[in-house]
Structure formats: structure tokens, C-alpha cells
Amino acid sequence: MADGVPSSRHQLSVACSKAVFFMLGYLTIIFCCQLLGELLVVGAGLPIPGPVCGMAILFAGLLIRGSIPDDLAAVGTALLDNLSLLFIPAGVGVMLHASLLQRDWLPISVSLIVSTALTIAVTALVMSWLRPPELASKDLTGGGFEEPK
């Protein structure tokens, strides 16, 4: 600090501290919604995962608020950017149980193929139902580019 004026390094430190504070606050909100979802599922005996219920609680809160706060969007983006790290424990679990996979490869393969096909079909149906009517009449198969003459 020279002559009572904060240095740019000090300003950057304060800005980073505020950003970390807001990120921790929004991470806490996300985890509290997940905890509420878990409590609701266990308490009510619902047949859905607690995090899914927590996500619905967060979604309802955002609908009531009317928008997504910028800092919450930044936290969500950071989580999605690092989502691949969350698959490491699952990969370790798969390798730990390789003998089970070797023994039951056929039912596992069939269930993966069938569930993937069903997911694609349901997604296509939902997309066709949610498509605005003005787009329903347009041919969306073309790339939208004309060949040069």
C-alpha cells in the first residue's frame, strides 16, 4: 500500500477472497439441497435417489427466484468442467469388481444396450413433444448451408 492507496495485488486478493466466499456459499446451498433431498427420500420412503430430489428442490428454488445467480452459474460451470474427476471412484470400483463383470458380462451388456436405446428413444420423443409448433413444419434434416454455384 503506497500513500494509502491499495495495491493492485491487494485488490486482486480481496476480489479472490470474495469470489471464494460466494463459491463456498453456493456450494453450501447445493449440498444443503442434496441433504434435504436425502432426508425427504429417507423420511418419506420415496423410490428415487436423494440427489435427484435435492436437484428438484434447487430447481424449485430457482423457479421461485426467477433467475440463476451469476455466482451459482459459475459454481455449476466449475463443477461441470471438472465432472470427469467424479468418475474416477466409479472406474476404480469397476476395476475392483472385474471378476463380477467377467462372470456377468452378457446381462450387463444387454442391459446397457437396451437402456441406451430406450434413453435415446425417450429423449427423441420428449424433444418432439417440446418442439415449438413453428419448428415442427420445417425440415431440420438439412444442414442449412447452400451449395455454392
Q: Helicity, in percent?
A: over 70%
* Class derived from helix and strand content: mainly alpha
What proportion of the residues form beta strands (DSSP E)? under 5%
Low-confidence stretches: none
Strand/helix succession: HHHHHHH
Report on this structure:
Helix content is 74%, strand content 0%. The chain is mainly alpha-helical and 149 residues long. The chain folds into two domains: 1-83, no CATH class; 97-134. It has helices at 8-44, 50-65, 70-81, 88-96, 98-103, 105-130, 133-136. Helix 1 (8-44) packs across helix 2.
Summarize the SSE layout with pairings.
Blueprint: H1 8-44, H2 50-65, H3 70-81, H4 88-96, H5 98-103, H6 105-130, H7 133-136
Helix pairs in contact: 1-2, 1-3
A few lines on this structure:
By secondary structure, this protein is mostly helical. The chain has two domains: 83 residues, no CATH class; 38 residues. It is built from seven helices and no strands.
